[in-house]
User: Fold this.
Amino acid sequence: DAAAALRAEREAQQQKKAAEEAAKEAHRKGAPSMSQNGPAIVLGSSAVGADVARCKAVMAADCEWIAFLPTEARWIPMSVDETIKTTYGTRPTEYKATDPGESNAEAWLNEAESCLTTWILTQIVESEKRAACFRALGRGWIFVQLSSSSSTRRNLDDLYSRYYNRTRFRWWFEGCDRVASTRKDEIAKMKFPTGLNSNHYLYGTVMAKEQVFVFKGLDPACSSMISLTKLRTDWKKLDVWVSNEEMRKTIEMPTMTDEERQLKVEKVQARKAKRRLARKARAKARKQEEAEAAPARRAKEEEAGREAAVTFETLLEELKLEDGLPIPAPLPVPLPTQSSQASEERISGAEPLAGGR
Assistant:
């Protein structure tokens, strides 16, 4: 109901705030990624470590079903879903296209993408709380990697050899900032629709109704295929995904034009730049406060050290009194004699005193 969805949304926002703090701490320490069985890999990039820590903190209450690193994503057999099993068990050349404008192989490829995205989205909306936590992850790409049971070399010119016999897949989520900073080479090789680029898929999407999927291994001739999936208004799981009427209205709105996406990219980047400047200003102010407080802190530490020394000497004297030991009196300071004065004068070249020989 609406109350439960509101509670889930509030919990997700709290988890997101905690995740941001965890991400900052991970970025500062360069903490390694951890899997269920111990350390998976030591992350060389601070961007990766911070994003993984943030995402895991957001999904801390329900993290068994999702992964944020390919090394931690579990392999799932195609038999997990009947539609997936049937699609990937059909030869692309035997698949019957319903659209006269596309070939059988193109229709098969579209269905191969659609059945996997539908299954993953169904996992996301398993419950309202899970859906709210996933939305709290923010902008990101869902990577889907496919694997074949055949170890033989494929003939890329043969449709059957290129697409058939995929037996398992795994998927994971990566935040957009992490994607932009660590996958530049991969993004450069992707093919985007005319008029669009990677920024439109990173920061120009509507999170309430669009999800970005990247398929790896679906077509050996193309290392990474990017796809923008839009939620339909008649999706049977839409009520679980939608938390308020504003989201429902957003989903019902027409798809944005390329110009509208570019404006959205510019707004998001301007907002990120503003937050970045605010962080730098806070860090500078914090350093200045620490520098100004350093002398007073050192003086306080020195005073504490002197007090500790006095306390120790007092305690030592009390212990000696308890044991019946006399407390030694301070040694008297010797007064200078006439002979010692004469010696000092001879050393310094002064005339000796009368009778000093």
Confidence is low (pLDDT under 50) at residues 29-44, 352-357. The chain has 13 helices and seven strands.
